[in-house]
Amino acid sequence: MTNKMIFAGFGGQGVLLMGFLTALTAMRQGKNVTYLPAYGAEVRGGTANCTVVISDEEIASPVASNPDFVIVMNNPSLVRFANMIAPGGTLLINSSLVHGEIKRDDVTVVPVPLNELAHELGENRSANVIMVGALAQATGVLTIEALKEALAETGLGKKPKVLELNRRALEVGAESARQALAKEKSA
Amino acid sequence: MGEAAVRAGCRYYFGYPITPQNEVPEYMSSRLLQVGGTFVQAESELASINMVIGAAMAGARVMTSSSSPGVSLMQEGISYLAGLELPAVIANVVRGGPGLGNIAPAQSDYFQATRGGGHGDYRTIVLAPDSCQELCDLTVKAFDLADKYRNPVMIMGDGMMGQMMEPVEFPEAIDLAELPAKDWTLTGAKDRPSRVILSLLLNPKVLEDHNFKLVRKYDAVTREETDWEEYMLEDARQVVVAYGTAARIAKGAIKRVREMGLKVGLLRPKTLWPFPDKPLKDLTRVVRQLLVFEMSAGQMVEDVRLAVEGQAQVHLYGRPGGVIPTPDEVAHQISHYYYQAGLMDKDQQSGRQGGAA
After folding, report:
1. Which chain A residue has its CA at the smallest distance from B133's CA?
2. Options 3.40.50.2300, 3.40.50.920, 3.40.190.10, 3.40.50.1970; which CATH number does B228-349 get?
């Protein structure tokens, strides 16, 4: 079983950190992983993306032509990556910011209103961690428990208060994805 | 790479910052201090490589790292290292060129790395890892090879390898005291006869002898150290030749075309010099179609053509400029040449016997 995923958004949204947390957690769960950041003259407000591959087998290519999961945090990323998703794949979008039309009917769309959820949680900066929680729910590869453990290693949990907040953020994300997926099924 | 170097006994690092390899000096700047080593951010690449010469002459395990334009600046020093027969490790995290180029992953320094790069009759050993684990393993090996042959060793990575993260299992740190003693280092001649390490050999006859001595060393390296990986070659009718990051992408592509029933394998040089000529030549007894895939306009393809001596058709898929093709694009090229050569028809006619040597 191999899962390829691309995370994309503005620089400053924590896009690379999302990918890093995902890869680290999968590694701690005993999977083979690769984490490939697109780098360049990256700046806050510019574009950022990274590719993560999680597999039970040896990973051949760390580059994904047709990712199974695409996590889109802003509109430009939707335009760039929506067409790449493998048929039957899943598109997770930050529905607070992404309003473009999704012109595909062969993928599952999971809208997560990140900005609102993060605001309710009391920390706007936790939006990316909420999305990772949603991704864990959608993939079924990562467990929320393992993510909570891995948080402490990433700097997202150096202070106990921040760690606790991010752990809650994961749960909020998972719950949001659970609801969105149930809605998609019944629709 | 940094941690692997430290565990291999590297205690001196001299370098000058350049993207996409700044993670190495950043790591070394704090890590070397913990093990009693020395880190110097030099004023230029020229200064860095000359500091490397000095430390190597004194017998230390020493390295520098840079990226394409910086490595160009170091070529004079690398030529001196080869002429002086000094062990040192130079890592080139290759980016797009020529000139300042860009900071994206590329393999366009193949000629520079494998042909010496600097002036004079010399060779550097060139290692090409394709994963973070191999980058770690080959870094350790680079220090051993450098000492064994008293020769500069280059690790050729690329921007992707410089930035990518994968799980790595580190080897145990070596004990510096257990390394074979070097009987040629310049460490002060108190209580022993003085030693001389010279680069200037004015008498042509003396220099010729020195050159032939180097040639004998290079022959030994070629015999002993040529290394490559074979991937799905057993029943292959077409073989992709690729190294480093390109080989990773090619493996992904081969998995895809295998699903479509195409019998395609990969030969991946792990040493770019010495180049695996013999396995390629042996391969041509059963495989007549080779596709060289590299992230340059076509450099290694020349070595492949030399190796097969006209016994196979050698095609090129080269993507220069820092572009990373996807496995799909490579798979498309593979199947294009596969069908063009009529290999699909042959597959249907007979289940071919035997495998690649």
Report:
1. A34
2. 3.40.50.920
